[in-house]
Amino acid sequence: MGRPWFGSTAEATAPRSYVRPVNTDSPAASPQPVQQPARRLLLRSALTGAAAVGTGLAVGAAPASATPRKRRRPETPEEALRELAAGNARWRTFREKHPDETRAVREELVAGQHPFAVVLSCIDSRVPPELVFDQGLGDLITVRSAGEVLDEAVLGSVAYGVLELEIPLVLVLGHQSCGAVRAAVESEESGEPLPAHIQYLADQIAPAIDHGKQGEARIDATIDANIRRVREHLAAEPDLAARVSAGRLAVVGARYELTNQLVHRVD
Ligand SMILES: [Zn+2]
Asked: Where is the composition biased (Low complexity) (predicted)?
């Protein structure tokens, strides 16, 4: 099934929370006198208190006075991977924190976004990135296409996250029992064409089909091969490759298991 993707040590030492830098350049980030500042301040104090109580219920939480309203954004590929691994650990053990959903966070995000990871995943309804990594608003750029298939719109969306938003991590997330991969394999085996736009997806996945295996094993192996192929394609994009070489970006393949909700690396 592959090794756990950042190891139990990383999960154990992952920061519990992080503070997101506020964009002070934007006028929207500053309270405006016409917007009833006293009421806004009162509201924010109340919300901060509520957030502190919520955090205080968690095991080993910091004192309320030290609890930041906003989380610190992971700045490096390693920090971003640790945060995703920690979030997935919460998800698969039913200990989600549902971060970054509060009124205060929603207000703050009007001024701008500073997400820390691009997740390119399948459209499958069982694998929503914000849920399986226990992240919230403003945390992830999610790009989704069946079978993580690349086209110009997907490539442009990933590039936007990396180049314009300075995101340090691109995660290609495939998953167990992927219907798009199954369709590609079965279409090739039967020779039966799929409806037009679905055939496009199958054509893109076809080069990853593992002909060394049969039946369900072929589909499962092709899921991994497709993840590797998409990851390698992205990592070879010149703008992304330059950042990888400079240590500013990691492009990582990973797979979600429906059976135990674990995300693990696919190298
Ligand atoms: Zn899928």
From this structure: 26-37
Q: Strand ranges (DSSP E) for the chain?
A: 117-121, 140-144, 169-175, 250-256, 263-265
Instruction: Tell me how far the alpha carbon of residue 121 lies from the centroid of ligand 1, in angstroms.
Output: 8
User: 179 with 126: CB under 8 angstroms?
Assistant: no
CA 158 to ligand 1 center in whole angstroms: 18
Domains of the chain: 7-11+74-265 (3.40.1050.10)
Report d(CA 232, CA 262) in Å as an integer: 22
State both tokens at 30: 């500053």
Measured CA angle at 121 (ends 118, 125), to 5 deg: 130
> Global pTM?
0.77
pLDDT of 159-182, one tens digit each? 999 999 999 999 999 999 999 999
> Which residues make up each annotated binding site for Zn(2+)?
122, 124, 175, 178
Order the strands of the 140-144 sheet from edge to edge.
140-144, 117-121, 169-175, 250-256, 263-265
Report the separation in Å between the CA atom of 243 and the middle of ligand 1, taken as the mean of its atom positions: 28
In angstroms, what CA-CA distances link 175 with 68, 83, 179? 34, 20, 10
Q: Is 167 in contact with 77 (CB distance < 8 Å)? A: no
Is 181 within 8 Å of 201 (Cβ atoms)?
Answer: no
Tens digits of residue pLDDT in 215-240: 999 999 999 999 999 999 999 999 99
